[in-house]
Each structure stands twice: as structure tokens, then as C-alpha cells.
Write a structure and sequence with these properties.
It is a single chain. With about 400 residues, this protein is mostly helical. About 60% of the residues lie in helices and about 10% in strands. Strand 8 (about 340) and strand 9 (about 345-350) form a beta hairpin.
């Protein structure tokens, strides 16, 4: 009898809890804003915000331009709802080295300073912010709450069945463990759908803005590089996202649907150039995009000038791109002071170079190798990504 009463009380608790939660999940949209306000207020008390107003103003300027588009233009939602609610979007920068950004219901967008440290262009930052705005505009947070509550009901019912059937010991443990696995699998699927919809919607917003959607792709490459360099680090912005490889294919498909040609050069100039070194007109440097890859010292008593050495490296890099070489063709010599392309030496780092760049010879040669790998990736993205995209179209659709 005591067991029956306990089960009855459990049933009542489940029904009441589920009804209350469904009411909150299906509440009017002004309740969505209230939920966001409450969570934002809690978060604001728990974190430290970046004091650099230049950074926060940059984020807000780009974010507000994209938020206006989101409030004015309805983009069909593949997940959540495309019903436009004119949220009063806010953008804040948290002082946190984790490379991450996230949104709360109602248009509360947060970006970590760690992410800002690797953003190179406004186009890349716009891609991140457009993705987070899409989460808010398509009400992904509230949709995930609804799915979570629905799945929790299943777990509760499985628990109830186990109790009613008098399942005990290891059998009950296995039953509950299986229910939890089901919950995890189902929520993971819904989260992936939300991320794919946010990427696709972000492209639509960017296509209607002054920002280059290719910034999403160049930023994604950076994330992939960070993950490869330190796979054990906190997942940050990677958490619950599809793999970068598949995101690139999906984003290029969305860009094609918007009539956008992929041109990464406008976001990060991928070809190499020889330019005068900053602060010393007698020296020259090799740059890829905005990044200085190498500053060449004059060697052999000036017989090999800084400019001639840079010109030779620039020519080799651009020739590599034209020839379609791959990562496997870029190698560091056994003495860790030379760079070889397709078996041929294109650069030897001298001690004077390392001193000028303020790095060891091995660190400098690694930096140049990484820059060449980026150039190879950018060429693949520009010319070969449609092939990958077509191979994944059936899966993406």
C-alpha cells in the first residue's frame, strides 16, 4: 500500500511538473523576452565584461546592423520559427579567453574576448554575430526547451514504468541509463538542426548586408586550426556544432542559393605580396592577407637583399597556389631552418631573420609553414569546395 501511494504521488508530480513546464515553453513571445532578461541578468552578475570600449563598440556596431536586417527580413526557418519578433538586441563582450559566442532568448548576444582575439576582419566577426542573431530570431532557444521537456517526459514515463513493474536493482539501472542515452541522442539531433539553420540564416542576413559572407568560411578555418592544434581544449564554439568540413559544404550551398560567389580574397587576401617592412624602409616583408609572414634580413654583406629574398618567397608561394600543391608538398627541412615545396628548397631561415622577427629559427619556419597551408586551403575552398558540396548535397538536403 505504501508503495502504491508513493507511485501515485510520483504520477501527480510528473503531471504537474510537465504541465507547468509546457505552459512556460508555449508562453507568449513576450515571455520569451522575459526568460532572456532573467537569464541575462543572472549571467551579467556572474561574468566580467571586457573594459576595452573599442572592442565592445565594434561588436555592437556590426551586431546592430545585422539585427536590423533580422528584424526587417523574414528568412524561412528549417528549425524553430521564422515568426519575426522585433527584439531589442544587445551585444556584450565577456572577458574570457575561451573562443566562444552564444545567444539567449530575446536577442541577448554574448561574445568572449578569446574569440575577438582571433577575429581578423569585420566580415569574420559579422559571420559570428549573424549566426548568433539567427538563433534568437528563429527562436531556437525556446524550441530546444520544448524538445527538452518532451524528452524529459519520456524519461519520466520510462522511470514510472520501471517502478510500476517493480523493476529493481541492475535492471532498473539499465532501464534508466537507456532512457538517458535516448534523451542525449534526441537533444543532440535537435541541437545540430538548430546550428545548421543558424548557419544558413546567417548567410541570408550577410547577403543583405555590406559584409562578405566568405568571412564565415575564413573564420571557420581558424577554428579548425585551433582545434587541430589543441584537441583537448574546451570545445567552446565547437560544442554541438557539425564538423567544420560539413559546415563549409553547407555554407557554400547556402551562398550559392543566395547567388553569392565564393571569394575569400576579399576577406583575407590569400596571395602573397612583397611590401616594405613596417618601421624600416630598407627592409621588406612577405604578407598573406594582413599578416606579416616573414621579414627578410640582408645577408652575405648585402649581396642578397631583403627585397630579392622576399620576392623569391612570394613567387614560390603564388606558384604553389597555381600548381595546385597540397599540404603534403609543404615540408620543413630536417635542420628546422628551411622550407621545401615539392622537394625543392624555397627558403632558408638565417639567424639574422630570426633575430629580426624576435623568434627562434624553428618557430619562424613553423609560422611560414602554417601560412603556406592556409594558402593551400584557401585555394581548395575557392576552386574545389563545390565538388565537396555536390557530394554532400543529398545528405544536407
Amino acid at each position: 500500500m505504501k508503495c502504491d501511494k508513493a507511485i501515485f504521488r510520483l504520477i501527480i508530480c510528473i503531471v504537474v511538473l510537465h504541465s507547468t513546464c509546457l505552459h512556460a515553453a508555449d508562453a507568449p513571445l513576450n515571455e520569451e523576452v522575459k526568460v532572456g532578461q532573467d537569464y541575462a541578468a543572472q549571467l551579467d552578475r556572474q561574468v566580467t565584461f571586457l573594459q576595452d570600449t573599442t572592442v565592445s563598440e565594434r561588436v555592437n556596431r556590426i551586431g546592430q546592423a545585422l539585427a536590423k536586417i533580422a528584424n526587417d527580413v523574414e528568412i524561412n526557418a528549417n528549425y524553430g520559427s521564422s515568426n519575426i519578433v522585433h527584439f531589442d538586441y544587445t551585444f556584450k563582450v565577456i572577458d574570457d579567453n575561451d573562443v566562444n559566442a552564444f545567444s539567449l532568448p530575446g536577442g541577448y548576444i554574448y561574445v568572449n574576448s578569446g574569440l575577438m582575439d582571433i577575429v581578423e576582419s569585420d566580415d569574420e566577426l559579422a559571420g559570428v554575430l549573424a549566426h548568433e542573431i539567427a538563433h534568437s530570431c528563429h527562436h531556437h532557444g525556446m524550441q530546444l526547451v520544448r524538445k527538452q521537456l518532451s524528452i524529459n517526459k519520456i524519461v519520466a514515463l520510462v522511470t514510472l514504468v520501471g517502478l510500476l513493474a517493480n523493476v529493481k536493482g541492475q535492471d532498473l539501472h539499465n532501464l534508466l541509463y537507456g532512457a538517458q542515452l535516448l534523451k542525449t541522442a534526441k537533444m543532440s539531433g535537435h541541437t545540430m538542426q538548430a546550428e545548421k539553420d543558424a548557419d544558413r540564416t546567417a548567410i541570408a542576413y550577410l547577403a543583405r548586408s555590406k559584409y562578405n559572407p566568405a568571412g564565415m568560411l575564413s573564420f571557420m578555418k581558424k577554428l579548425d586550426d585551433l582545434n587541430d592544434a589543441n584537441p583537448s581544449a574546451s570545445p567552446g564554439i565547437y560544442k554541438d556544432h557539425p564538423s567544420p568540413y560539413r559546415r563549409v559544404a553547407a555554407i557554400t550551398k547556402a551562398m550559392k542559393e543566395e547567388g553569392i560567389q565564393i571569394d575569400l580574397s576579399e576577406t583575407r587576401q590569400c596571395c602573397a605580396k612583397t611590401v616594405p617592412a613596417e618601421g624600416d624602409d630598407s627592409l621588406y616583408s612577405v604578407v598573406i592577407g594582413k599578416k606579416v609572414v616573414f621579414v627578410a634580413a640582408e645577408i652575405d654583406n648585402g649581396e642578397l637583399s631583403s627585397k630579392s629574398r622576399c620576392d623569391a618567397l612570394t613567387s614560390a608561394i603564388n606558384s604553389m597556389i597555381d600548381r595546385g600543391l597540397t599540404d603534403k608538398d609543404i615540408a620543413i627541412g630536417p635542420d628546422w631552418s628551411t622550407i621545401n615545396l615539392d622537394g625543392a628548397q624555397i627558403l632558408k631561415i638565417e639567424s639574422a631573420d630570426a633575430i629580426m622577427m624576435g623568434q627562434s629559427e624553428s618557430a619562424l619556419v613553423r609560422q611560414i609553414q602554417d601560412a603556406l597551408r592556409y594558402a593551400v586551403w584557401a585555394e581548395w575552398l575557392h576552386n574545389r569546395c563545390p565538388v565537396v558540396q555536390n557530394s554532400l548535397n543529398e545528405e544536407l538536403d
